[in-house]
């Protein structure tokens, strides 16, 4: 019997999708909480260098970028599940690498210590939500 179509596997698919969707939605909520605590809460002027100019980091930018990162993580996990038996391990390694690379942006582009620390915190919070929650939904 093909194990990919057993009743237990078919029943697990909607729960897996639901759990992944909740993880992807929880990440922007968490990063927006950090943004709210820092920007309106603590008065941090969240500005980054973008080429030769400076740009404010808005709540919309935080929410959308975190949502897109979560969707990309979900897509990569789903792709890996189709093509490798070690999807969880490969995805976790890739997620850790992406986190490390993503930290280069705030460290190099943040204008001021408050901005840099806030952006690093948002990256770490997004990873703290997405990595364990999406990893938990991986097959096998």
From TrEMBL:
Keywords: Membrane, Transmembrane, Transmembrane helix
Residue spans crossing the bilayer: 21-44, 56-77, 89-108, 114-134
Domain of life: Bacteria
Protein name: DUF6069 family protein
């Amino acid at each position: 019997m093909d194990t990919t179509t057993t009743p237990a596997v078919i029943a697990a698919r909607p729960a897996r999708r639901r759990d992944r969707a909740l993880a992807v939605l929880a990440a922007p909520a968490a990063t927006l909480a950090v943004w709210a605590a820092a920007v309106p809460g603590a008065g941090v002027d969240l500005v980054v260098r973008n080429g030769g100019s400076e740009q404010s980091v808005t709540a919309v930018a935080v929410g959308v970028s975190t949502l897109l990162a979560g969707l990309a993580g979900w897509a990569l996990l789903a792709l890996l599940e189709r093509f490798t038996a070690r999807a969880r391990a490969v995805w976790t390694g890739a997620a850790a690498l992406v986190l490390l690379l993503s930290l280069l942006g705030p460290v190099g582009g943040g204008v001021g210590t408050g901005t840099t620390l806030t952006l690093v915190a948002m990256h770490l919070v997004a990873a703290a939500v997405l990595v364990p929650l999406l990893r938990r939904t991986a097959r096998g």
